[in-house]
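Protocol step 4 of 5: obtain the predicted structure for the target chain.
Materials: sequence only (see below). No template structures provided, no constraints applied. The aim of this step is simply to have a reference model before the mutagenesis design in step 5. Sequence pasted as it appears in the construct record:
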Amino acid sequence: MKSCFNVLSTEEKTRIHERSLAILGATGVRVCNQRARQHLADAGAAVKKGSDVVRFPAPVVEKALATTPRRFRLGARRPGWDLDMNAGGCTLLMSGSGTHALDRRAGCIRDATFDDWLQATRLSDALDDFGIYWRSVDAVDRPEGAAGFVDQWIHLFRHFSKHMQDSVNTPQEAVWLLEMLQVVFGGKEKLRQKKPFSFVLCPQSPLVIDDVFTEAYLALAGWGIPVAVMPMPLLGATAPASLAATVITANCEILAALCLIQSIEPGVPVIYAPVSAVMDPRTGNVKSGSAESGLISAASIEMARYYQLPAETSGLGTGRYAPGIQTAVEKAVSTTTPLLAWPDVLVGAGLLGGAMILSLEQILIDVEVYRMSRRLHQGVAGGAEQMMDSAFAETPPGGHFVDHPSSLKAVRGDTLYISRLERFESLEEWETLGRPDMLDNAREAVDRILADHQPLPLDAAVLRELDILRVRAGEKG
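Step 4 output (structure tokens):
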């Protein structure tokens, strides 16, 4: 018996869809890229000369939805790690594009470095909970331009072997990325079949599709690259101040981007991937880790299912700057509801301070929160075997079940989730050991994983080709 959880009724989902169509048809969306506006005009959208506002008649939206595939597979270099979307699975994804790191040796917060990024990437490659990569931090010590871009992606290929999801900033970066993907995975047709990379496209709330990232995406068109459409409306700031209106804002932006994507490359896979948030009324900042954020994420998952699209959304949020009690509470609250709603991909692990500060220890703790929330989703097994008729029959009233075979089977199976980070010693032992907590265990686990993990190697011929690309990129600057 799976846990049953809904935040929207069927009628409410239909109402959100209808309100979204009304907004798209009457208010429209600013589309800042001229080529994108032309694609939309060719698809039937209303594009007025001299304006960048595009209005979307309902038939245009419905046609784009009908053109979008419901099931597809995200590929990976590592055997057995392809991910079927919209097929009942769920995987974890690191939060992305942080700017700082919590130094695990000095305990201070500083600018994020390439080594921080590399260690976080290796951790996510080592942990089976992560099925997809997203760039955790933007390192301050990497060279800009083609040289830095190509070198970082080569390091990624060497240290991460599952699916990769990220964005590129310019058409030039898109061209370099396509060259590297072909070296690692084969030619264009193999990339179309394998789908080892998906592109993150972020509309700007409220109701804007920007020029820069759209131009970068256009450079990838024709390669069958899946797109995760990831608007980030902020309740009370870039979305109206209600949970439902924030869901509607993200829904409008996703549907508009979906129309654009299908007008450019009909049939390309799309992931419904809003990362909505709530404004803290006391500061005006993002209130990461709120109960409302979890509810909005759950509602967004349900809207993805309404359209029968794969769902990707956020959890594991916190506004605090270091692991601790408030961090744990916020991450647990903002994760449980979306996990009960069950997305294909949950975004958010590893970052603190409103997704700006990387903590390697927090990655491990977030994985624990994710695993416990998955257990909640699994619910209470109610099959005949779980009724334990033999245990009741073989144990007299007043007896115990400690040594019954069913107890050992439960411990070794999935009836009970047994954490690897929790402390379980007696009070006396805990005092003698200096009162250690989960954070101490996480530090030890990070050291152990980074010391032991061996990424899946690349073939020597592939490495040689990548090195040639690295040299070419260095010549470009």
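Step 4 remarks: The chain has a mean pLDDT of 95. The chain is about 45% helix and 15% strand.
Proceed to step 5.
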